[in-house]
Amino acid sequence: MExxxxxxxxxxxxxxxxxxxxxxxxxxxxxxxxxxxxxPTHATIGYDFSSxxxxxxxxxxxxxVWDTTGQEKYKSLIKTYYKKAMAAILVYDITKEETFENxxxxxxxxxxxxxxxxEVMLVGNKIDLEVERAVKTEEGMKFAEEKNIQFFETSARxxxxxxxxxDALLNKVLEKIKRLEGSDSKQNVDSREEExxxxxxxxxxxxxxxxxxxxxxxxxxxC
Length: 223
Fold this sequence. Notes:
Layout: E1 9-17, H1 23-31, E2 47-56, E3 59-68, H2 75-82, E4 87-93, H3 97-101, H4 103-113, E5 119-125, H5 137-147, E6 150-153, H6 162-181, H7 194-203, H8 206-219
Parallel strand pairs: 1-3, 1-4, 4-5, 5-6
Antiparallel strand pairs: 2-3
């Protein structure tokens, strides 16, 4: 599996949050889960990009991950990376309360500049520094519940929960894609879900549309 042409679905995912929270380290650990592998500690300048292929439920998914900088001077640039993103990981540092407080602003920016159907995961990173913790787990859980988003705590350094974060978030996106594939007929969709599904359909990027058509072609579907 070396090319996106072999993928059934292509998903754009962005990492966001204040500088120094460990976004780049989380991505590095996701790409190389070996605990013996040293992960970078430098801050991202502008953005970084990574692509990964994996299989799930007999489907090949290609994930395009955009690691955005948290530096203030690049914030206007970051907004452009929100476009067409189907998933976002919002990271804060559990040892720095300010990074958690700023999550509300990051989320507002995503909601204002991103896609209406974007799935979000709140991640409190650096749990290996428990003795320095400044943000309680319960605070993160409460924020996530209020914003109706998922929540995890991780340690990129030790590889704790990193894979679980990506798996849980991508599963939510894939569930939505499957609903969209089966929602051509209104009788397949709960009336209470029609509005949100229609909004998400309008926000689907050309890559996802092409991916769905490719998947149907493989199945021999003429719809």
